[in-house]
Amino acid sequence: SQKIEQNSEALNIQEGKTATLTCNYTNYSPAYLQWYRQDPGRGPVFLLLIRENEKEKRKERLKVTFDTTLKQSLFHITASQPADSATYLCALAGDYGQNFVFGPGTRLSVLP
Amino acid sequence: DTGVSQDPRHKITKRGQNVTFRCDPISEHNRLYWYRQTLGQGPEFLTYFQNEAQLEKSRLLSDRFSAERPKGSFSTLEIQRTEQGDSAMYLCASSPRPGGEQFFGPGTRLTVL
């Protein structure tokens, strides 16, 4: 069955450093991979989308890579700030983009 | 505010009762998703609509769950004969394109006593 793993439940980093979050998947060939941010008690907020034929996407301080050979996506936040503290979720979908499978999330804490 | 809205925000019910939740997506989005999320987990896909057609439904979804999207606008999710294991946050999201970014509502938190 499809399985998505995200590195560690929690990640603590110092302000100003680069946070790197990992999303690994098995038994799946996603056409779409998305990253979301979720704050406690709120719905997820979309951050970035990358397609299977793309290697890298950037948006301001955010960067996502997608390696279909390794079956892995990396999500980077550069110059991290305490306001970046949240849970980050990866989500994968097949060709039709109809059924998204979410990972369990990584809780990031950026310490001042 | 033109975001996704959900109603109610909180629902407490007794085991065995039926509950219904409503989702109003962003008006120009024809794709609508329902998810369930429990503490410490990512959202779990329940069902997907394109306009009024329910095109996909999770195989894990009990037949106590049913969803509709009449006229391709708002959607409802009904849970019949609720069980304590149904306690969770129910999230709705809409999207303008296949595989595109999803805009989530604030969720409905269900507690089954």
Could you explain how this protein is built, in words?
The complex is a heterodimer of chains A (112) and B (113). Chain A is an all-beta fold. Chain A contains no helices and 11 strands. The model of chain A has no long low-confidence stretch (mean pLDDT 93). Chain B contains no helices and 11 strands. In chain B, a hairpin with a 6-residue loop joins strand 7 and strand 8. Chain B has 113 residues and is mostly beta strands. In chain B, the strands form 2 sheets. In chain B, strands 2, 4, 5, 6, 9, 10 and 11 form a 7-stranded mixed β-sheet that branches. In chain B, 0% of the residues lie in helices and 50% in strands. Chains A and B meet through strand 4, strand 5, strand 9 and strand 10 of A and strand 5, strand 9 and strand 10 of B.
Overall mean pLDDT of chain A stands at: 93
Radius of gyration of chain B over alpha carbons? 13 Å
Structural class of chain A: mainly beta
Query: What integer is the average pLDDT of chain B?
Result: 94
Query: Number of helical runs of chain A?
Result: 0
Beta-strand content estimate of chain B:
over 45%
Order of helices and strands of chain B: EEEEEEEEEEE
Please state the CA-atom Rg of chain A, rounded to the nearest Å. 13 Å
Percent range for helical residues of chain A?
A: under 10%
The biggest sheet of chain B amounts to: 7 strands, mixed
